[in-house]
Amino acid sequence: MADRTTGGPSLPGATVFIGTKPVMTYVFQVVAQLNSGAGPVVVKARGNAIGKAVDVAEVVRHRFLEGQVDVGPVTINTERLVNRDGREANVSSISISLTRTTPVPPRTESTPAPPAPPARPS
Amino acid sequence: MADRTTGGPSLPGATVFIGTKPVMTYVFQVVAQLNSGAGPVVVKARGNAIGKAVDVAEVVRHRFLEGQVDVGPVTINTERLVNRDGREANVSSISISLTRTTPVPPRTESTPAPPAPPARPS
Question: For residue A113, is pLDDT > 60?
């Protein structure tokens, strides 16, 4: 399954799909989206990645943006997929919505300004 | 981690903790609780079992009690546990509430009546 991030800073919201990369990869994607002022970010996962989606939301909430995000609503569902053999299979999915409750910080560390030109001896 | 089922038919609600047993084991526990009229059943899991908790709720909703249960609210959290080495670790958790929307069926297959006494030739 490919990891996809749809929506950018100019859209009203963004979705981060959880795949096989490490938790922190997705944590940084979510934090970047929330800091871009894009609106609510929805973390989505299917099957084995569901636990990781919960980890991502919890790490964002408790470690990176403590007291600055609301988590929820959380919804669960079943998706019907066709696997490689052409057979249909039911797979559980989860959607976790994260919304910033504080203003977006001014651009500092997350989007550094271009480096200053090197100082030249006059 | 032990699998526990707290609360019985006489309590206002019940909690089913998801552990290492097969999904269907927990599905039957949840269905039995919902059919006992015990009120909302909360499915809880931590860490690796989170995906299984979602599977349990979805199987109950779509296969066993289709159109008869409301799923939600779903809440996620972080629990601080002490592992075997005495170190603290953060573990994600999930709670999924399931509520029956239709009346509890009369007792039939799930709680069979005691067998009739053997017929005696008179």
Answer: no
pLDDT tens profile A50-93: 999 999 999 999 999 988 999 989 999 999 989 888 899 999 99
Residues of chain A with Cβ-Cβ distance to B47 below 8 Å are 51
Give the nearest partner residue to A51 out of B47, B57, B58, using CB atoms: B47
For chain A, what is the total number of helices (H) and then of strands (E)?
2, 5
Averaged pLDDT, B66-77: 92
Token pair, residue A51, equals 């636990």
Closest CB from A71, A73, A92 relative to B54: A92
User: Residue B58 belongs to a domain with what CATH number?
Assistant: 3.30.110.20
Structural domain containing residue B33: 5-100
Sort out which chain B residues have CB atoms less than 8 A from A71's CB and list them. 76
Counting the structural domains of chain A, the total is 1
Mutate to test the interface with B, among A43, A54, A61 (most CBs of B within 10 A): A54
Side-chain-side CA neighbours of A38 within 13 Å: the count stands at 24
pLDDT of residue A3: 47
B113 lies in some domain: no
Tell me if A105 is assigned to some domain.
no
Do B106 and B37 form a contact (C-beta atoms < 8 A)?
Answer: no
